[in-house]
UniProtKB/TrEMBL annotation:
Pfam family, one: TM1586_NiRdase
GO MF annotation, one: oxidoreductase activity
Name the record gives this protein: Nitroreductase
Species for this entry: Muribaculaceae bacterium Z82
Database matches in InterPro entries: Nitroreductase-like, TM1586_NiRdase
Domain Putative nitroreductase TM1586: 11-219
Lineage top rank: taxon: Bacteria
Amino acid sequence: MPDLSDERLAAQIPLRHSVRSFTDRRIEGQTRAALQRFVDECNERSGLSFALCTDEPGAFSSLLVRYGLFRNVRNYIACIGAQDQDLQERVGYWGERCVLAAQALGLNSCWVGLTYSKKKVAVPVSAGQKLVCVIALGYGTMAGKPHKSKRALQVAPGVEGSPDWFRRGVEAALLAPTAVNQQKFAISLDGDEVRFQSEGGTYTKVDLGIVKAHFELGAMR
């Protein structure tokens, strides 16, 4: 069984970059089974209803895809959950863990908020639930490239005098994907309590969940 431990996920953080163009290679066999198990475990732990959809190009067959510069997306995770005030943040947190697990399995990925067809997503959304976004998956035509990033002091002003574990967490958080690379978040340390704050904007609640996942994996605490 592939290693998808927290240590293994943390090791993927500097390696994983957004990819929007994919080959025709199918996600199958042990890779698909391992990713499905991981998604199922995330659902069980979080109460979310993520769905792994493979060989389902419909959601990325509309004209919207051209604006998002996506090519040949045939696989994705539909990020679904019961509507409540922290749904988007939970989607970000658990979705990013799935993203890093996919990376560990040799897959590439990209968070997608708008440029896909919600009506053509291959799984039903039950009453009281919401489809927040999807995560495009597959074998990329390229590995992607690092995004421009803020400095640690810009998101965590007190980081220089902080413990090593906090600095590691902040550095990992700076590698978190955010909507249009806006990085609208702040992290602070109050005693032993880590505080996260969103500065508001499009999909920033999802972003905050992603940032928290990275911080926890980076800090390993």
